[in-house]
């Protein structure tokens, strides 16, 4: 709060300075009025952008402190291949392909992404984004902090979060002007747990039975996984290739939108590719996510992991 108040004071000082500078330039350099106006607009936009960015970062830091506080101890601390003996055959192939016996259990993940995001299904334009994500697996949670460029120099800041069984979604232009906000609804909470679960391909030890996941056989190329956190349950069907790697996922029903106070659910799907070895685990570095409409899948996310760091149980 002190930081935000300080920034407000600085913004006021800089705004007065910019106005004074513009007036001085208009008299001393005899610039045309339109040039002075453009200079003032650019200066004020730069100030507002810096303030919004720093204010958003301040809130992000607070959120992530809450995410990492009071973490619980994980057991077991390493993967034992004996625990997968009774799992469906394609799931066994998956763990044999992505983990080695004795792999330490992941407790925290920090990653960076870039890619394209589809903001509106009524248009075809994709917008560039960059994001960081923090995931904790001791008490299940994550925070996706993204900046989506809607026009040059103007970003929408997005937090997509799951913490202590509660989902939170915020979107703000320049980090200052809220355009979307949802918190702790039944549909949102379940949807955010689905996201945590589907993205466990980046932290595959979280898909082990010892971490609370129940696997159900479907056929030679797919299995259903179910995870419960507090009073929320999420189920995802994973598809495997011949090597055992997860290549796609599908959740039968995730909240798509709210119309007239009623939630509309739709199948939620994703694809994974470009597997690479990171800290002894094989994970996909590229993926895409979308909604399965009756007429076909409509993607809204295409992203690539550019950096990933892990912490492990010890």
Percent range for β-strand residues: over 45%
Order of helices and strands: HHHEEEEEEHEEEEEEE
Give the biggest sheet.
13 strands, antiparallel
Radius of gyration: 23 Å
Class by helix and strand content? alpha+beta
- Residue-averaged pLDDT: 89
Give the beta-strand count. Answer: 13
Low-confidence stretches: 1-5
Structural summary, described in words:
- The protein has 314 residues and is an alpha+beta fold.
- The protein has two domains: 2-60; 70-312, outer membrane lipoprotein receptor (LolB), chain A (Clam), CATH 2.50.20.
- It has helices at residues 2-28, 33-68, 89-98, 186-198, and strands spanning 106-117, 127-136, 141-151, 154-163, 166-173, 177-183, 214-219, 222-229, 232-240, 246-259, 262-278, 281-293, 296-312.
- A 13-stranded antiparallel beta sheet has the order 6-5-4-3-2-1-13-12-11-10-9-8-7.
- Strand 7 and strand 8 form a beta hairpin.
- Helix 1 (2-28) packs antiparallel against helix 2 (33-68).
- Residues 1-5 have low confidence and may be disordered.
